[in-house]
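Contributing new records

If you add data, match the layout below exactly. Sequence lines come first and carry their own label; structure lines follow with theirs. Keep one chain per record. Anything else will be rejected by the validation script.
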Amino acid sequence: MDAIIIAGGIPEPDEPLYEYTQGQPKALLDIAGKPMVQWILDALGGAELIDRVVLIGLSEEDSLECTKEITYVSNQGSMLQNVRAGMEKVLEINPDANHVLGVSSDIPAINSEMVDWMVKENEGTDLDLYYTVIRRKVMEERFPNSNRSYTRLKDAEVCGGDMNMIRATTVRTNDELWDRIVAARKNVFKQAALLGYGNLILLLSRQLTIDGAVKRVTKRMDITGRAVFSPYAEIGMDVDKPFQLEIVRADLMSKQQIAGA
């Protein structure tokens, strides 16, 4: 399977990480002695089930390394455009590609075992989207101070992960839909409109199970998909704020010290 890494984000002056990035890509933040995105490349490079990597938003000049074949795609200006450009590049390189693993550049605590788990977990199925979720207990046992936001359902309390699988051709099929998905990522009112207010009421009243929520959302979006419960909190430990940056820095520095002992 081919993987794409979305690494085009550059924090603006009014965003929490700007004091650390100062106009540079977030993906190049130093984490325990190397760029944050290098940890992602190491995880993908060591995974048995990943063949190639497409990195969107950076270039050869950033002096990154990967043991797998790596192709760079320039920043296209928005997340949607970057995802599309990455998918198009995968299909250009491998026209027979079915699914692609999409990984955010800001989950540096992942490793190769977790990457292979995600691919194996979904083998033998053929859906449009596989979206990882992490139970609150799993996240808080591993990262008790992560302060993640959780969705409370009838049978689970979960947060979203940042390593997902998507059918390679899906982003070509409905421009309006994907524009709305990207626009809704961090706006609760737009998310409500996307989900549908009837479904939102059921969600807020905790009358929906995780399977029920998936069925309603995929039907509304006219796609097929499933929620994938990850046993790995690292897939959801993204770096959006300074305290999260310090959490992963300390975590990975500790792992390096143990490995070097």
